[in-house]
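User: Sequence recovery, please. Input:
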């Protein structure tokens, strides 16, 4: 029992030494330029967090999530043996995907300009 306590004390000492060294060695500044710049969503971290979300960003995020889920549904179909019913279901699924893409394209949601 004494050996287990000694091992724990040694581990605690090693962890404390490593954490102290990392604090002393790091070059992180409080006002790092990259950390304080706006991220992908476009929010400025210095402003209020109650700013309205851009509808354009929201729609692009939803489209990405929808098509990301659809890709995860399509990938297992590559390894599935093709029969008549599976071929019809795969074709129907792809047609639904294409109709969705063309609808989003027609509505202008996929346009990156403006």
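Assistant: Recovered sequence (114 residues):
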């Amino acid at each position: 029992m004494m050996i287990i306590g000694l091992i724990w004390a040694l581990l605690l000492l090693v962890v404390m030494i490593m954490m102290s060294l990392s604090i002393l060695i790091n070059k992180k500044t409080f006002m790092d330029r990259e950390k304080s710049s706006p991220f992908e969503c476009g929010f400025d971290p210095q402003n209020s967090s109650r700013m309205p979300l851009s509808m354009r960003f929201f729609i692009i995020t939803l489209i990405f999530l929808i098509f990301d889920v659809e890709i995860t549904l399509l990938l297992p179909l590559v390894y599935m043996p093709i029969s008549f019913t599976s071929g019809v279901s795969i074709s129907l699924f792809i047609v639904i995907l294409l109709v969705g893409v063309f609808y989003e394209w027609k509505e202008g949601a996929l346009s990156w300009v403006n």
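The chain has a mean pLDDT of 78.
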